[in-house]
Amino acid sequence: MVAEALNGIASLVELWKTNKQEAKSEKQKKRDAVHLVMNAVVITKAYLHDIERGIAPSREAEKDLSIKWVNASMAIIEYDRELHEVAKIKSLGWADPNEWARAASRPWAIKLDTIIEQCQYIIKND
Q1: Closest to 74 in 3D by CA, of 124, 40, 110
Q2: In this structure, what is the dihedral angle of CA atoms 110, 114, 115, 117, given to the nearest 10 degrees?
Q3: Contact 69, 43 (CB under 8 A)
Q4: In sequence order, what are the residues at sequence separation of 6 or more whose Cβ sits closer than 8 angstroms to the Cβ of residue 88?
Q5: CA R_g for the chain
Q6: φ and ψ at 6, to 5 degrees?
Q7: Which of 18, 59, 66, 117 is the Cys-Cys partner for 94 at CB 3.0 to 4.6 Å?
Q8: Residue of 86, 51, 47, 53 lying closest to 70 (CA atoms)
Q9: What is the pLDDT of residues 63-89, one digit of tens each?
Q10: pLDDT of residue 31
């Protein structure tokens, strides 16, 4: 009977360890997703700064931005649907500039500062 109780306790401890590790892994996945979004924001800000300073726009850089935003969009979907949609709009806009016209009716949705604030909210409430 004592052996059964010890086995039960050992099983509970093992289950607790597994759950704790899974929670830690899930938290890291969320942080990685936010990191991809913030990476896309930083690269976008740098690109826009360069354009403001007179450097000619680059379709290659815009294609790269589109890929970064689609990766961010797919990573964050599990944690924040609104941020996923914003990242998707960014991805489509950088891939095809005609898409920006569709997003013009929701300018708040694609502002980089708004995206940064949302990322900070996700991490803070983790």
Answers
A1: 40
A2: 180
A3: no
A4: 69, 70, 73
A5: 21
A6: -65, -40
A7: 66
A8: 86
A9: 999 999 999 999 999 999 999 999 999
A10: 95
Question: How far is 17 from 52, CA to CA, in rounded Å?
Answer: 52
Q: And the tokens for 17?
A: 């360890």
Q: Give this prediction's pTM.
A: 0.74
Q: pLDDT digit string (tens) for 8-40?
A: 676 666 767 667 777 788 999 999 999 999 999
- Longest CA pairwise span in the chain (Å): 80
The number of angstroms, rounded, from the C-alpha of 107 to the middle of its chain's C-alpha atoms is 19
What single-letter amino acid sits at 28?
A: Q
Residue 47, token pair as written in the block = 């690109």
Report the SS3 class of residue 109: helix
CA separation, residue 58 to residues 9, 37, 119 (Å): 62, 21, 27
